[in-house]
Every structure is written in C-alpha cells, then in structure tokens.
Automatic annotation (TrEMBL):
Organism of derivation: Didymodactylos carnosus
Protein name: NmrA-like family domain-containing protein 1
Pfam family, one: NmrA
Matches recorded under InterPro entries: NAD(P)-bd_dom_sf, NmrA-like, NmrA-like_oxidored
UniProt family annotation: Belongs to the NmrA-type oxidoreductase family.
Entry superkingdom: Eukaryota
Keyword line: NADP
Sequence ranges assigned to domain NmrA-like in this UniProt record: 5-94
C-alpha cells in the first residue's frame, strides 16, 4: 500500500463506502465490513470511534484524502454531538497535514 494514495472513508459500511482503501466502521467483524474487505486486498477495514481523538488520529494517519461524515443518528436530539464529531475529524485531518 506504500505506493498507493490512501483514501480513508468514515462510515464505509453505509451508503458512502465502496471503492476505498481504508474504511472506518464501528465493527470490522460485521457482515457489511467483511463484504467490503472481500472486494480486494487493497481494502483495509479499521475499527474507529469518531468521538475519540486517538482513534481518529490512528485511522486518518497516512491518508491522502479523507471522506468524513458524522453520525447524526447516534444522538438525533443533540445536534452539538454531531458538530463535535465533525470538528474533531476536521481538526485531526488538519493536524496530520492531509493534502
């Protein structure tokens, strides 16, 4: 994978995933995560809690591009929760100098 441009996709097992290199999901053992992994050796599925800075840093490391989305369904009555997720991912991406 060293010669490829790494694209990291938050929510890879949802409608957003597909042709990815690194997919983030809550459960790498889920049926959807395993189905994505079977598409090719170039797909890496990673467990990540997008509410935890350390998880996001590890998941975003070495990414050429990041397609990030928040989880509006986790706490639909608390929009600040989703805003914090987005800000955390944006801050981590900026700190890693993703091109």
């Amino acid at each position: 994978m060293a010669n490829r441009r790494l694209v990291t996709v938050v929510g890879a097992t949802g409608a957003q995933g597909g042709a990815v290199i690194r997919g983030l999901t809550r459960d790498v053992n889920s049926e959807k995560a395993q189905a994505l992994k079977r598409l090719g050796d170039y797909i890496e599925m990673v467990t990540c809690d997008i509410n935890k800075s350390d998880d996001v840093k590890c998941a975003f490391k070495d990414s050429w591009a990041i397609y990030a989305l928040t989880d509006s369904w986790a706490q639909p009555d608390q929009p600040d929760f989703e805003i914090r997720q987005g800000m955390l991912m944006a801050d981590v991406a900026a700190s890693l100098l993703t091109p």
